[in-house]
């Protein structure tokens, strides 16, 4: 099989011929039809995250040792199954849940494989989807998105699940509560689309870019705010009493400051975005506002099942997808890093 691998952090991906894996035990071999390209692929490719003050967190210890194959938004056809594999049949087209844990620890058994301390995340810790084939440890990680185009369906494995998993952390909400979403980029717009179905409310969306604010209104935001317009932010706080939950799809120093200030008493500030930097606040504000600061990392297998059902039932409007051949994997990472991408890039075989 041909795989596009990181052989040196930040250098062009290399097209390499590798042996096609043979599934053992409960494993399933999936012939990849399409794989989305995510902003975290750029971090994995570069090998580091910005953690503020000019410092970087190196990824060599937490992700796969190079060379490895990135790509975690995978859809494909089941072409071979190990003797104990269940949960799918040869010929099925399935979206792969990539946030796979050890499957044995209390965290995994409690249904939060995405938070396992011994992760086997596809395209992060083990080889992923910029390839002809991917080996999946168990058929239970395959999800049916029947009726949804392949290039769209695969994006729900990360950007969709990330948005959905973060939104659910805002629960429980009271009648009249306001939910604020910061950042109307790809994942943020998914969040806007899911908000009504997941939380029963239309969100207030904050973005510095007027085009993205318009896109948020088109996707179902109840109102939009320009964070640089201080009067509008003050008026929002006065009118609503502050947001019960702020979901930050950017995760930058400025958005953390804005988001925590926008909370009502007892509100939750939920960070999803990985833009980077560091967060400073006056510590007494945390108890005075009875504020909760929490992170959200992708979503659980249970979230994935709920999401698949919402999408199959047509409750989620599709996002724009930018389809390209698989051999543009490396160029696509470059384009994403340069911010030159409209819509979700999806590589196709
Ligand atoms: Zn991702
Ligand atoms: Zn585990």
Describe the 3D structure:
This protein has 349 residues and is of the alpha/beta class. The strands form four sheets. Strands 3, 6, 7, 8, 9, 16 and 17 form a seven-stranded mixed sheet that branches. A six-stranded parallel sheet has the order 12-11-10-13-14-15, with helices on both faces. It is globular and about 60 Å long. It contains eleven helices and 17 strands. The longest helix has 14 residues, at 186-199. The structure holds zinc ion (2 copies). One zinc ion binds at residues 101-102, 104-105, 107-108, 116, 118.
Please identify the structural class as seen in this structure. Answer: alpha/beta
Instruction: List segments where confidence is low: pLDDT < 50 over at least 5 consecutive residues.
Output: none
Bound molecules: zinc ion
Give the topology string: H per helix, E per strand: EEEHEEEEHEEHHEHEHEHEHEHEHEHE
Rounded mean pLDDT is 93
What proportion of the residues is helical, as a percent range?
25-40%
Number of E-state strands? 17
Give the end-to-end Cα distance, rounded to a whole number of Å.
Answer: 12 Å
Strand content: 15-25%
The biggest beta sheet is recorded as:
7 strands, mixed
Spatial shape: globular
**DSSP summary: helix tally:** 11
Rg, rounded, reads 20 Å
């Amino acid at each position: 099989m041909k795989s596009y691998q990181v052989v040196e952090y930040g250098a062009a991906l290399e097209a390499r011929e590798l042996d096609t894996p043979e599934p053992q035990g409960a494993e399933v071999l999936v012939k990849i039809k399409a794989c989305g390209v995510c902003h975290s692929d750029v971090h994995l490719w570069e090998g580091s995250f910005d953690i503020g003050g000019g410092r970087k967190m190196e990824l060599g210890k937490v992700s796969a040792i190079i060379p490895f194959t990135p790509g975690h938004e995978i859809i494909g056809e089941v072409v071979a199954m190990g003797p104990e594999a269940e949960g799918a049949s040869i010929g099925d087209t399935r979206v792969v849940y990539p946030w796979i844990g050890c499957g044995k620890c209390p965290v995994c058994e409690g249904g939060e494989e995405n938070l396992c301390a011994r992760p086997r995340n596809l395209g992060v810790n083990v080889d992923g989807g910029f390839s002809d084939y991917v080996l999946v440890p168990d058929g239970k990680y395959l999800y049916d998105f029947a009726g949804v185009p392949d290039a769209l369906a695969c994006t729900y494995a990360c950007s969709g699940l990330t948005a959905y998993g973060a939104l659910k952390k805002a629960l429980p909400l009271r009648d009249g509560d306001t939910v604020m979403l910061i950042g109307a980029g790809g994942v943020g717009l998914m969040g806007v689309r899911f908000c009504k179905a997941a939380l029963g409310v239309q969100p207030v969306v904050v973005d510095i870019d007027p085009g993205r604010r318009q896109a948020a209104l088109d996707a179902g935001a109840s109102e939009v705010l320009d964070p640089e317009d201080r009067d509008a932010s003050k008026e929002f706080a006065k009118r609503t009493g502050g947001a019960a939950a702020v979901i930050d799809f950017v995760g930058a120093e400025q958005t953390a400051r804005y988001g925590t200030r926008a909370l009502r008493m007892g509100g939750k500030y939920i960070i999803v975005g990985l833009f980077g930097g560091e967060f400073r606040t006056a510590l007494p504000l945390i108890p005075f506002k009875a504020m909760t600061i929490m992170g959200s990392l992708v979503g659980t297998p249970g979230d994935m099942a709920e999401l698949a059902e919402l999408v199959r039932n047509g409750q989620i409007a599709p996002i724009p997808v930018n389809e390209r051949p698989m051999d543009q994997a490396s160029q696509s990472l470059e384009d994403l890093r340069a911010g030159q991408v409209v819509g979700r890039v999806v590589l196709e075989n």
